[in-house]
Design brief:
The structure is a homodimer. Chain A is built from 10 helices and no strands. In chain A, 68% of the residues lie in helices and 0% in strands. The N and C termini of chain A lie far apart (50 Å). By secondary structure, chain A is mostly helical.
């Protein structure tokens, strides 16, 4: 198949061929959800979108970048968390939590993020989270932090962050929903820090 | 309206009129989801089901008992947690967590519980949780434990229990999904205990 070039881009906002970009993202979402992150190649995505693999790399970079683009997150968590990570594991629980809260407390980000969270209950969304978001996004953050056993610690961190998101933003349970940031941090940062650097049961 | 008596009960398992019981439960689910726990009266449920309020009390007891019946939980959390609560707040985090794990680790309970958890993303289910389960089930547990500020502490406990349920049972993220009970307890019981009896920010 040849690349479907759009002569008159429909929205005209991005350079290049927006239909091609959209086709690549649609193919990526479908294949990542069906086959997980490790089971999906750039080559397979390119074939499904009817384009050359080099074009996928050109538009989206490496596979983990394409994965993050396909999730259509309002914020790239790797970029948002980079300063929190660069300062190392001490206090990382509080710094990361403040980043999460600043993203979720922004009303512009709230709805797209709740839409994503809803995907946790359908099989494709579960697979994207379990076999995509965790290995491609969360675990590399744990590795970059220099954690011991990041493959255990990052799912623990995720379990409390997901539960906090559910209670504060989805269910809007008071007093958590209206709690000032500093109170949320006082309560939850010690939990996250313990999961990042505290004792773990020996395997 | 008169009570619709079923002369030949369809399943024949329960004494009395199963159609009446089913009609009361259906009306209760609808009204609790639409109006919350405090906004729903036994009288309104009886009227919606076309029966007398005394019959609702006769079949289901008090409003919180009817609410728990309407949720169709595989286990009544108040009964399951009673021994954990009776021993008081010291160590209650671990005792309650062991009860949660024993219920969720039972494959017979898993599917109905995941169905309920999915309801957290639709408006009726959110209202049932926020304005029903929390005030009618969780907060009384906090009061029975003798906690200081149970209306703050029980939502914190819920946030970690919900996140653990998501990661271990819904998303099945390893190594948490296959972790032995004692490891889960070593990791999560201190978190729950801190939420139950640890310091809180001054309001």
């Amino acid at each position: 198949m040849t690349e479907p070039v759009s002569v008159t881009p429909r929205r005209g906002r991005r350079p290049g061929a927006p239909d091609t970009r959209a086709a690549i993202l649609a193919a990526a979402r479908e294949l990542f959800a069906a086959n997980g992150f490790s089971g999906t190649t750039i080559r397979a995505i390119a074939a499904a979108a009817g384009v050359d693999a080099a074009l996928v790399h050109h538009y989206f970079g490496a596979k983990d970048d394409l994965f993050v683009s396909a999730l259509e997150l309002p914020v790239d968590p790797r970029a948002a968390l980079a300063p929190a990570i660069a300062a190392g594991p001490d206090g990382a629980g509080e710094r990361m939590l403040r980043v999460f809260l600043s993203v979720w407390d922004n009303p512009e980000h709230r709805l797209p993020l709740i839409g994503l969270a809803r995907g946790l209950f359908d099989p494709g969304g579960q697979r994207l989270m379990r076999e995509g978001f965790l290995p491609a996004v969360l675990e590399p953050i744990g590795v970059a932090l220099g954690l011991e056993r990041p493959e255990v610690r990052m799912p623990l961190l995720a379990s409390q962050v997901l539960g906090l998101i559910l209670v504060r933003y989805v269910l809007k349970v008071e007093p958590v929903a209206s709690m000032p940031t500093d109170h949320v941090v006082a309560i939850y940062a010690p939990t996250l820090q313990r999961y990042l650097t505290g004792p773990l049961p020996t395997p």
